[in-house]
Amino acid sequence: MRIGIPHCGNAYVIAEALVQKLGNGKNELIIPPPTSHRTLDLGVKYSPVEACLPFKLTLGNLIEACELGADTLIHARGTGVCRLGYYVKEQEQIIRDLGYDAHFFTLDVSQNRVKSIMRLIKELTNDAPWSKIISAFSFAMGKLFALDEMEKVIHKVRAVELEKGRANQVYRQAVKAISEAQTIREVRNTAKEYVKKLGQIPKDPKADPVKVGIVGEVFVVLDPFANMDIEMELGKLGVEVERTMSLSRWVKYRLFLNYLGIDEWEQVHKAALPYLRRSVGGDGWESVGEKVVYARDGYDGVIHLAPFTCMPEIVAQNIMPSTEEDIPVLTILYDEQMAKPGMITRLEAFVDLLKFRRKRRRK
Amino acid sequence: MLKVGIPRALSYYQYFPAWKVFFEALGAEAVVSPLTNKAIFAAGNSRAVAETCLPVKLFFGHVISLADKCDYMFIPALRSLGRKAYYCSKFIGLPDMTRALVPECPPILDPEIDLNKGRRGLYQTIYSLGSHFSSDKNKIKKAVEQAEKAHLAYRKEMSDRGITPIQALDETHRSEDKSYLEPDVSRGLSIAVIGHQYVIYDDYVNHRLISRLRDMGVRVFTPEMAEQQALDVAMTKLGGAPHWSFEADIVGAGEYYLEGKVDGIISVAVFGCGPDSMMIDMVRHRARGFRTPFLHLSLDEHTSEGGVLTRLEAFLDMVKRRRRVCA
What gap in Å lies between CA B215 and CA B317, rounded to an integer? Predict the structure, then answer.
């Protein structure tokens, strides 16, 4: 079996780590090349025109995996209101039409299914012993948590560093070191070391960064190719970025704490309630709630990311401007037509607006 | 008498007879907004963000046109009609979006319909909806039974007689214009028009597509002219278990009419429709297998009548020539 996966931000690190611990020579993991413009072109060429960007990008990834010889493909599936539930039906057909003979495994992400994920791993490893699977899984999670922790730190450092770009260099080294680490202890030590290194980057003592919360559809929020490195660009503009959503948080709650009745979004949903009374699928409810929460927490603005034609986020987009908690929202919709300079211009204008508002408020 | 406003948009085409019977049985009057017109479009378009799809923008326009004519606005939040198949997010968020965008709207009745939660939850939702009009539980129960009967009769009438919802609704309303009601017996091309009811039956959106086709001598088939069960069977055959509540009307109808050997399929969708962006492709793929001509019309607020007409004419010419050559 040659197993191919699509990309979403750092998600491939989990797969890589699992293989590192569970690889048995029989099965091979094929991580497609990092999402590139070629990936996007492939996805756009073979997708229905009006499919959303995550569909096109993941399809591109899967085609590239097939080109490298993958015969088994893993993809997320959601039972719920968004298009994600239809992805596999459609992509399976497209890939078959292209002449690849690939079998799909689907991972239901809309429900708490730690069991089904574990079973999938067991099936894909030709029945490895449970003890080995569990230790490999926790090793993979360790890497994921370390990476997400780095991201949290770098969001703060980027905004205030003296020499722009320094933090990114350290971050890239950190990602490399963490993905090369062999044991969980090594992962933790590496992470600690790089957090310290990030802390030592010289900072502008006069810096007073505006604070912005990022909300929106999970794939474009988490995937730097899809969102055109928006967090890095904001860092260049001297903006401190906060983002609740992360893969590690999702894993932590969806696979474990939700079972204990702990709902990570409870406060956010409560905040959204006066404006949106129910889930509308995808991340629409959370987007509205998070806007309210960021406004209450004294953030300067919210940036709302969504793929073009994303249904849940259009609901959120219609509702967000009218909440009582007033805070500027910039919605950025991504599709294959979008160019980065356009995004940067809009970000610059938005940040200027936020700075102006802050000055006026402080007077 | 309390007046309940029902916007002539989205699920109106599917459920209006049931809703009307329900509210009237409870002693309320159902007030419907006029046919979509320019003023309604302009009003809706000015409120919603640009990315919203045309039918939802029109929905807000219809709400605005009703705002001062009723005591309640009926906007159910349709989530699922069971089988783990769902409506589009915008249907679920409709009441909340209306609250945000149309502040002048009278109090909104927004029962959440989710049949995955079982019948008990549905009954509770309906009772609390009915309690706005009557405290008599028996009366509400009777109203529900009558509404269900009306809905089934409406659906059956369409499939038995091969008529569209507009024709069926017109009869129940005894409208003046009866030209629609003439039975369709033309022996011209048979073309299936598939799409959401609120797209293929709103003449403002589709530029009178169906009557135009009929004027051209085409025998038009729409999803409602087939029995629901037949559509369900065809849908399962092509796509397996449904993911969307209206999958039978698009994928099912596509497969059903392809197997029925129509001369061509016209799928009509609005630009930016999430579910359609995926489902239409399934039908297109299948049509290629059947070697049946397939035309996809993507409509939005900028679509011109001339553009639609040109494409229809070209498509029909192609189908005709093909029939001649193959015959």
Answer: 15
Contacts B90 to A, Cβ<8 Å: 280, 311, 314-315
pLDDT beyond 90 at A28: no
Contact predicate B210/B193, CB 8 Å: yes
The CATH code of the domain that includes B25 is: 3.40.50.11890
Tell me the average pLDDT across B269-296.
93
Mean pLDDT of chain A: 90
Q: How far is B217 from chain A (nearest CA, A)?
A: 32
Cβ–Cβ gap B274/A311 under 8 Å: yes
Least confident of A26-30, A59-63, B42-46, B123-127: A26-30
The domain containing residue B56 runs over which residues? Answer: 3-157
Conformation bin of residue A309: beta by default, left when phi > 0, alpha when psi is -120 to 50: left
pLDDT in tens, A299-321: 999 999 999 999 999 999 999 99
H/E run at residue B14: helix B12-25
Inspect the interface and report whether the beta carbons of B271 and A50 lie closer than 8 Å: yes
One domain for residues B113 and B244: no
Residue A77, beta-bridge partner list: A108
Residue-wise over B233-257: b if at least 16 C-beta within 10 A, else e? ebbbebbeebbbbbbbbbbbbbbbb
CATH no. for A2-128: 3.40.50
| Angle formed at CA A322 by CA A318 and CA A323, multiple of 5 degrees | 115
CATH architecture of the domain covering A208-363: 3-Layer(aba) Sandwich (3.40)
- The verdict on a CB contact (< 8 Å) between A322 and B101 is yes
A241 bridge partner residues: A212
Q: What is the pLDDT of residue B181?
A: 44
The secondary structure of residue A161, as a DSSP letter, is B
Mean of pLDDT values over A217-229: 94
The CATH number linked to B238 is 3.40.50.11900
Lowest mean pLDDT among A104-118, A297-311, B137-151: A104-118
Of the partner residues B51, B99, B112, the one whose CB lies closest to the CB of residue A333: B51
Average of per-residue pLDDT across B120-137:
91
Q: By mean pLDDT, which of B90-104, B173-187, B196-210, B309-323 is the weakest?
A: B173-187
Q: What is the pLDDT of residue B248?
A: 92
Cβ–Cβ of A49/B90 closer than 8 Å?
no
Q: Give me the interface pTM, i.e. the ipTM.
A: 0.91
Confidence of residue B185 (pLDDT cuts 50, 70, 90): low
Domain closes at, from B157, B176, B209: B157
Residue A118 has pLDDT above 90, yes or no: no
Residue of A nearest to B283 (CA): A90
B294 falls within a domain: yes
A313 → chain B, closest CA residue:
B89
Binned at pLDDT 50, 70 and 90, residue A255 comes out as confident
Do residue B274 and residue A80 have CB atoms under 8 angstroms apart? no
The answer to whether A221 and A245 are in contact (CB under 8 A) is: yes
Nearest CA in chain A to B276: A50
- The nearest alpha carbon in chain A to B271 belongs to A50
Spatial separation of the C-alpha atoms in residues A12 and A179, rounded to whole Å = 10
- First vs last Cα of chain A: how many Å apart? 65
Q: pLDDT value at position A11?
A: 86
In one-letter notation, the amino acid at residue A133 is I
Q: Which residues of B touch A276 (CB under 8 A)?
A: 93, 96
Considering the domain architecture, whether residues B238 and B273 belong to the same structural domain is answered as: yes
Instruction: Tell me: do B190 and B127 sit in the same domain.
Output: no
Q: How far apart are CA A89 and CA A215, in angstroms?
A: 28
Q: How far apart are CA A360 and CA A345, in angstroms?
A: 23
